[in-house]
Write a structure and sequence with these properties.
heterodimer; A: 185 residues; two-stranded antiparallel sheet; 6 helices; B: mainly alpha
Chain lengths: 185, 328
């Protein structure tokens, strides 16, 4: 089975927010709710400033706290390793929203918990997630980590990758690389 | 200096979590109260060595009130569900790592055990109040089994009291909740509130006095555990240390949490002081009935304990959601 991951090349993000918009359109995300976000982080004192643009989304963690917290198995791990939500089984208890250290989930106006699915419906058709497809700076790269020649596997071999909140022990499947600057996030 | 600009935030998680609210506070309070009452009234009913069956039940109103308390409290978590009509899915599986799943199976189990207890402790002369012959028959059948049922309810009460704390402490993403002291704190405060409630509802002076004495130990334990809870977080890593800041903040935004902590440390010691006063007053035994003033004082101290328990739960539920493990 594939092991889908996303690699985000932080240096290539131009902050156009196309990923945020296209995700909403592709997945019919309701108004004022988002499955992905872009964080613009400016550090330092003027004039010595450094800005980082960082896309954030569900990390499809290997040790997903949301799956453990779910009382109905509505949050489950799909065969391809991604974390998905069975909307029918979700009772809207919001335990998964509290359990997620990445704030990746939100409560859909219809009552169920919702989050990024890595565009499961598109992957099944052999396509890439909508945010990856639309990314102007080619900052978001998606693929199967178990495929040695895949772009994601090559990038993770070549560059020092980090994950968000590594100390939380969730083993995220969204990796961040910085081609110019080494070091963590 | 860090300046953040985020496109695509959800109001439920940013700038801080607004996931669980007063409904969960009521659930935790009434659940804890019910747990404490079950444990306390089991102690009252089991402490006397075996006697003729009809004399065993010293405490028969408490299981009834514990049942009502939990039966009112449990629907509050249903009110919080986004899709309450889907809650039947809770009973399609048991997820050992999900505390919500433990609650879904555990709370009805406690209610069932509690219902058996209610029927088992009804005194013979009051069984006619059940009206329905079948209920009277159930009560007659269960009465001889009062002691094992009381033991079961003692265990169920401990389970429920701990569960209300573990429900919160299982969330590793929330530093204030995610520590092993919280379930102990909630259990002790649940037991304390149960003892306080029994002091209020009991008629017999010796029962009131017994639970006043028990509550003294529980209040002392609660105050110690609260201090250990904060100390443990203070000596931990940055997110955990930050999580207790609202309780020691004088800014208008968080002052309410500081007020809550001050209130807890005023109400509980005051209740303790009143109870110690009662202890001294009756150290050579009580003679006849309590005076109205004595009863008022006992009830007042018990109400202080209940208020402290409620404030504690509300403060921890709300303050916990202010600090995340992965704060930006």
């Amino acid at each position: 089975m594939p092991r889908y991951v996303m690699v985000i090349d932080v240096e290539r993000c131009i902050g156009c927010m196309a990923c945020v918009i296209t995700c909403k359109k592709e997945n019919d995300v309701p108004a004022e709710h988002y499955r992905t976000r872009v964080v613009e982080e400016v550090r330092g004192e003027f004039p010595h400033l450094r800005m980082e643009l960082r896309s954030e989304l569900c990390n499809h963690c290997e040790n997903a706290p949301c799956i453990d917290a779910c009382p109905t198995r509505a949050s489950y791990r799909a065969k391809d390793g991604t974390v998905q939500i069975d909307k029918i089984k979700c009772i809207g208890c919001k335990a998964c929203i509290l359990a997620c250290p990445y704030d990746a989930r939100y409560s859909h106006p219809k009552g169920y918990a919702d989050k990024c699915t890595f565009c499961e419906h598109r992957i099944k058709e052999g396509k890439k997630p909508a945010c990856v497809e639309t990314c102007l700076g080619k900052s978001r790269i998606f693929g199967d980590l178990d495929e040695p020649n895949s772009e994601v596997a090559e990038l993770l071999k070549k560059y020092d990758a980090s994950v968000r909140l590594e100390f939380a022990g969730t083993k995220p499947r969204v990796f961040y690389i910085k081609k110019k600057f080494a070091g963590g996030m | 200096m860090i300046e953040l600009s985020i496109t695509g935030t959800n109001a439920i998680t940013f700038p801080y979590l607004e996931v669980w609210d007063w409904r969960i506070v009521i659930y935790l309070f009434l659940g804890g109260l019910s747990a404490g009452m079950l444990v306390m009234c089991s102690i009252a009913n089991l402490r006397i060595p075996k006697q003729p069956v009809e004399e065993l039940a010293q405490c028969f109103k408490a299981p009834f009130i514990a049942f009502i308390s939990l039966a009112i409290g449990a629907p509050f978590i249903l009110l919080d569900l986004g899709r309450p009509f889907n809650s039947f899915w809770l009973f399609s599986t048991f997820q050992p790592l999900s505390l919500m799943s433990w609650g879904a199976w555990g709370v009805p189990a406690v209610l069932l055990g509690n219902a058996l207890y209610m029927f088992a402790v009804i005194p013979k002369e009051q069984r006619y109040k059940l009206r329905l012959p079948i209920l009277i028959k159930i009560s007659e059948k269960l009465a001889p089994k009062m002691r094992p049922i009381a033991k079961l309810n003692f265990a169920l009460g401990i389970f429920l009291g701990i569960y209300t704390g573990v429900l919160l402490s299982s969330f590793s993403a929330i530093p204030l909740w995610n520590n092993a002291t919280l379930p102990i704190l909630f259990l002790v405060s649940a037991l304390s509130s149960g003892a306080a409630m029994i002091v209020i509802i009991a008629h017999k002076p010796e029962i009131k006095f017994l639970f006043t004495k028990i509550d003294i130990w529980l209040i002392v334990a609660e105050l110690v555990v609260i201090m250990l809870f904060f100390y443990g977080l203070y000596t931990s890593t940055a997110p955990y240390k930050k999580a207790i800041e609202p309780f020691f903040s004088l800014t208008s935004e968080h002052f309410i949490f500081t007020m809550a902590l001050i209130a807890i440390f005023l109400l509980l010691p005051l209740a303790l002081r009143l109870k110690l006063g009662e202890l001294k007053e009756f150290e050579d035994g009580f003679h006849g009935e309590f005076t109205k003033e004595q009863i008022f004082r006992m009830n007042f101290a018990a109400i202080l304990v209940l208020a402290g328990t409620l404030i504690l739960r509300a403060a921890i539920v709300y303050a916990g959601q202010l600090t995340k493990l992965g704060a930006y």
